[in-house]
Amino acid sequence: MSPTTPDYLPLLPLVELADCSAQLPRPTMASIVSQEVRVFRVPDDASDTAECSARFGIPLEDGANTIVLRFKKESREQSAAIVALADRRIDVNGAVRRALGAQRVSFAPREWATEQCGMEYGGVTAFGLPRDWPILIDTRVMERTRIVMGAGVRSLKLLLRPSTLLTLPNASVHDLLKT
């Protein structure tokens, strides 16, 4: 890690990718295997963003959440994901709708989202999503040195540079905050 290594890094129970590959959803594993991504274990009582931040001393502004959306564009229902910092409120019906060029945007139902992603609720990550989904990344995510985000399962988290998100298919950066 570089001189900008987060202070909380020594507190994270890091694991080798090979040691957790059986736990990760296959598409997630395939998506991160060649990236500079660190994986760490999270106890069940610390898997939610706020609890994870408190347990490991991770500032909330380093926590990034992936949210699955459904949207209507050109009379077709489609899917997308947004990646935003945990301490921010996203403008879904304004900025996100405009970025997608959508007529209507809504949060995907929990069961549908987990089935389509092949990931656990509360652990959804941008890594391993269907390749045709747009992934909108809020500009504030890109301003962080490192981010912590879900790994597709609630028992693991990912630590990475935000620029790694730009390697994902259909990933783009937008100002998505509520003003």
From TrEMBL:
This is YbaK/aminoacyl-tRNA synthetase-associated domain-containing protein. Transmembrane segments: none annotated. One of its GO terms (molecular function) is aminoacyl-tRNA deacylase activity. SUPFAM superfamilies: YbaK/ProRS associated domain (SSF55826). Residues 45-165 form the YbaK/aminoacyl-tRNA synthetase-associated domain. It comes from Caballeronia arvi. It comes from the Bacteria. Signal peptide: none annotated.
